[in-house]
Design a protein that fits this description.
Layout (H helix, E strand, L loop, with lengths): L1 H20 L2 H13 L2 E12 L2 E12 L3 E8 L7 E5 L2 E6 L4 E4 L16 H5 L8 E11 L2 E10 L9 E7 L5 E7 L5 E13 L2 E11 L6 E11 L10 H5 L6
Antiparallel strand pairs: 1-2, 1-13, 2-3, 3-4, 4-5, 5-6, 7-8, 8-9, 9-10, 10-11, 11-12, 12-13
């Protein structure tokens, strides 16, 4: 019995030391991989709230690694069928209502996506939260009763990113990103991201309710609800093509 107790104690201590040895980049990498998987297909809705109105957009998205993503708008009717594609360093928007394909320049990445508080970069993931930043562990912080890491992300010198600094609160047990603060290059807080309603999606637990709250726009908010996610799906690089952008409504 004493040997069993000693063995269990050693396991707990070993796990604690391993957690202590994690670098900021490794914490960020584990968290990012948990949200992305090797690939995924996601169904979600996005509600844009403004002081005098609100509207909801539903969509499907497919992604593979950090190089490929495709987003299809499924409602409302005005935007239905519109698609967004990232393929390595190139990004396009297909607008079926006018039969037009638009290539998105890097200068548009900071602009609001579909009129929301998400940026084009948030959705299309031109920048990499793992590779384009230096990660520093500032310490520990309790958030909503959960023990978390507090990470500071500073962009690398030549990284094409839109933020001057990012602060992330990530749970120690499950590596879930629960709170994110986005700052500009002058260290002004631009927006806050809050994640909650943790549910089992496919083979893992992830937050399914995400709110983006601008710092200087009273009454503005964007709410993302994840309806379903399938991780590590079988999808080829060729899926992420301009041809599929034009027929995305027929894709399963």
């Amino acid at each position: 019995m004493k040997k069993l107790t000693l063995f269990l104690s050693l396991l707990i201590i070993s796990g604690f030391l391993q957690a202590q040895d994690l670098s900021g980049k490794e914490i960020m990498k584990r968290s990012d991989q948990k949200l992305r998987g090797l690939s995924n297909k996601t169904v979600m809705s996005m509600t844009i709230e403004r002081p005098s109105w609100s509207r909801t957009i539903t969509m499907k998205s497919w992604s593979k690694g950090q190089k490929f993503s495709l987003v299809l708008i499924t409602a409302p009717a005005k935007e239905k069928g519109q698609t967004f594609l990232k393929r390595e360093n190139d990004m396009w928007n297909w607008i079926p209502q006018i039969s037009r394909m638009i290539k998105l320049p890097p200068s548009m990445m900071s602009q609001g996506w579909m009129g929301s508080d998400y940026s084009n970069d948030d959705i299309l993931k031109e920048s990499s939260i793992v590779n384009d930043y230096n990660h520093t562990i500032l310490g520990s912080e309790e958030y909503e009763g959960i023990d978390c890491y507090k990470l500071q992300l500073i962009p690398k010198q030549d990284a094409a990113v839109i933020w001057g600094k990012i602060i992330k609160i990530i749970s120690k047990e499950d590596f879930l990103q629960l709170k994110t603060l986005y700052y500009d290059e002058e260290d002004f807080l631009i927006k806050t991201e809050l994640s909650s309603n943790i549910k089992l999606m496919d083979d893992r637990k992830i937050p399914t309710h995400i709110e983006i709250i601008p710092n200087d726009k009273k009454g503005h908010k964007t709410i993302l609800e994840i309806i379903s996610t399938d991780f590590n799906i079988n999808v080829n690089d060729s899926f992420f093509s301009q041809q599929n952008m034009k027929r995305a409504e027929r894709l399963k």
